[in-house]
Design goal:
The protein has helices at about 20-35, 45-50, 55-60, 65-85, 95-105, 110-115, 125-130, 135-155, 165-175, 185-200. It is mainly alpha-helical. GO terms for molecular function: DNA-binding transcription factor activity; transcription cis-regulatory region binding.
């Protein structure tokens, strides 16, 4: 890939926009994850896949965990935007929260990157998610915040609920349902869990 000036992107002096460069590197990271089937990628693999020097990759992502977190945040941001926009009854807090928890569970199968992220060995991903809890919460809150405010105004949620804490509970519930013990259970079991242990705590 070349810049308008004919230079290879990522090379010294190449005029590639930083945001564009980050996306190209994350795209390469996703391809590597899909090819390997897990998150045990090496930075050199990603650099080779992106056709850049390792120094270019390290300029944007100092460690593999930094790269993985940025990749996960981008996927969450894009997915949350789709899911919020596609809510069937956005004014109904119970129905919407249930969808927001269960959508990620059903989105794993059929997506090679998601399958790799949630493969049997999730140790690397779990540590990355733990480190990125605040960032993940901020992304989710940005998409769900307006609805959350409306639900509280309508009296559907407990008035003392905090948006960020609620997003953490939603995210934690999804992560639990994606665990090896729960991921392959029937959708009806997932729904019962959400209704019994999450919605009861949030809804008035």
């Amino acid at each position: 890939m070349t810049t308008p000036a004919g230079r290879r992107w990522g090379g010294e002096g190449a005029a590639t926009d930083d945001e564009q460069a980050r996306h190209k590197l994350l795209d390469a990271g996703e391809r590597c994850i899909a090819q390997r089937g897990d998150t045990q990628i090496r930075m050199v693999e990603v650099a080779d896949e992106a056709a850049v020097a390792r120094s270019t990759l390290y300029r944007y992502y100092a460690t593999r965990d930094d790269l993985l977190l940025a990749l996960v945040l981008r996927r969450i941001d894009r997915a949350a935007a789709r899911w919020v926009a596609g809510l069937r009854r956005p004014r109904d807090a119970a129905a919407s929260i249930r969808e927001l928890v269960l959508h990620p569970v059903t989105a794993v199968d059929g997506d090679p990157v998601n399958l790799a992220l949630y493969s049997g060995d999730r140790g690397t991903l779990i540590s990355v998610l733990d480190e990125g809890t605040d960032a993940i919460t901020a992304v989710l809150a940005g998409h769900v915040g307006p609805l959350f405010t409306q639900w509280k105004r309508d009296g559907q949620l407990h008035p003392d609920l905090d948006l960020r804490e609620t997003m953490q509970w939603i995210s934690a519930t999804t992560s639990f349902l994606l665990s090896s013990q729960w991921r392959h259970r029937a959708p009806s079991a997932h729904r019962r869990f959400v209704d019994r242990y999450l919605l009861r705590a949030l809804l008035v």
